[in-house]
Write a structure and sequence with these properties.
The protein is 36% helix and 19% strand. The chain has 16 helices and 18 strands. Helix 9 crosses helix 11.
Length: 479
């Protein structure tokens, strides 16, 4: 059903749903919501709405569909593909769940927590820990990103190796559909094979099919033992071999296995100058490895015995095991500081791609070589999560480049890397989503049947085409 209202009357109707105190109408107040955190995207909006309940979200979307008003969901604003930014020159209305941040229930016996979609990730982690449980999703932005956004992009993080990504951690959802209807799929069952799994439609959909207002997610026993090691190796090929050996010897107790180049230490210390180098910084490849557990297993002994064996075999050349939580944190600061160091060097190309694990080392070698040949004055930085084949191959333009030169080099680097990625049958998005940044690349790689299915789903669930227009795909009826 369509409704004809003037623009002013429509905005007034939206404001009345949440109350004037929870609607931003002044551009100075709206401005922080209009820019992607790296400055790549800038949009416009006449209104930011901050509902306090699922019922208010329902009323907003019902009105949006009736009036054809585009709605852009805003979570923590930490997304890396521009999916949270309204279109430039548009009248897109922003909907933020920041007031919907309740921990609804913790069922420690069932290892389930139920939270609002606007809960900050760190708050969910804290609530789980208060019940001697672990919510394992771990991201650099965990102090500001929100669970709804984590689900909408199917976030992975550094612990995905042991615990899985958000899709695997999610048991059920409460979703407000674009029509305003509320789908109550907030189940807490770990086994449920009753028909289509509607939950998975909304995970990774980046707000194009509705608003996730609540979620039930898995918890784990809190690991009271953690062993963290930084290892130097002769090659990335050796890192893959080491991973396979660790999977065999440490089983499911391995919770992280990250690979980094030697440049990681340079970049990290540019961001955090007082970081102390724990081992020599000139090995061809590095691995940050963590195993964790609780109960009767002796994690420290397992790590020592494992490293003793691989060092005796020559697979690991050098290494250090953290002797305390503070030392472990210092090791992780190199992994996290590397990203900050890249940012300090200015705008650069960031990728979030995946390839089959068996071909990861070959892909990195071929892609970096292709970048070097096409852009000899640029610097490649490859790192990521070995266990799931997720590579962040970033390209840094030379210092002193003009904005136009940087843009041209980033475009060329993306073209080169994607060409190699296609040869390896990889994915252009492993964990960050499509958003606006990767939409063209995504569309180029869709076969007709895939596109038809996506369009049919969008049309069926969002017939008015109001949810996050311009994100993921250019669907019919969206300009």
């Amino acid at each position: 059903m369509s409704m004809t209202l003037t623009r002013a009357d429509t905005l007034r109707a939206f404001i009345d749903i949440v109350g004037e105190a929870h609607a931003l109408v002044l551009q100075d107040d709206i401005k922080p919501y209009l820019t992607e955190n790296r400055g790549l995207y800038h949009g416009s909006s006449p209104l930011v709405l901050k509902p306090a309940s699922t019922a208010e979200v329902s009323a907003i979307l019902k009105l949006a569909s009736a009036t054809g008003t585009p709605i852009v969901p805003v979570s923590g604003g930490t997304g890396l593909v521009g999916g949270q930014v309204p279109r430039e020159g548009s009248d897109d209305v922003l909907l933020s769940l920041e007031r919907m941040n309740r921990i609804r229930e913790v069922d420690a016996l069932a290892d389930v927590i139920i939270v609002d979609g606007g809960c900050v990730l760190a708050s969910v982690q804290k609530a789980a820990e208060e019940h001697d449980r672990l919510f394992p999703l771990s991201l650099g932005s965990e102090g500001s990103c929100r669970i709804g956004g984590n689900l909408s992009t199917n976030a992975g993080g550094t612990a995905v190796l042991a615990y899985g990504n958000m899709r695997q951690l999610c048991l059920g959802l409460e979703v407000v559909l674009p029509t305003g209807e509320i789908w109550d799929g907030l189940r807490r069952l770990k086994k449920d094979n009753s028909g289509y799994d509607l939950r998975d439609l909304f995970i990774g959909a980046e707000g194009t099919l509705g608003i996730i207002t609540a979620v039930s997610i898995k918890l784990m026993p809190f690991p009271d033992q953690v062993a963290t090691a930084l290892l130097g190796l002769n090659s990335l090929d050796d890192a893959i071999t080491l991973y396979r050996r660790a999977r065999r010897d440490c089983c499911d107790l391995m919770s992280a296995f990250e690979f980094m180049p030697p440049l990681a230490f340079v970049l990290a210390r540019e961001a955090i100058p007082d970081l102390a180098m724990p081992i020599a910084g000139d090995y061809p490849a590095y691995v940050l490895m963590e195993i964790s557990g609780s109960g009767l297993v002796d994690i420290a002994d397992l790590m020592e015995r494992f490293l003793g064996g691989v060092m005796e075999d020559g697979l690991v050349v050098d290494g250090v095991i953290a002797a305390s939580q503070a030392q472990a944190r210092n090791l992780w600061l190199f992994r996290e500081g590397m990203n900050e160091g890249q940012a300090k060097r200015g705008q650069h190309m960031r990728t979030d791609i995946s390839v089959p694990l068996s071909r990861l080392a070959d892909f990195v070698r071929d892609a970096e070589q292709a970048v070097s040949e096409a852009l000899p004055d640029c610097t490649s930085v490859s790192y990521g999560h070995v266990g799931d084949g997720n590579v962040h191959l970033n390209v840094l333009p030379p210092a002193g480049s003009s904005p136009a030169e940087i843009a041209a080099k980033i475009y060329e680097a993306k073209t080169v890397v994607n060409r190699v990625l296609d040869e390896y049958h990889g994915s252009i998005s492993a964990e960050h989503g499509i958003g606006r940044l990767k939409r063209a690349d995504f569309e180029e790689r869709l076969d007709p049947s895939h596109r038809a299915l996506l369009s049919a789903l969008k049309q069926a669930i969002d017939p008015s085409m109001v949810m996050n227009p311009g994100c993921q795909l250019n669907f019919p009826g969206i300009s």
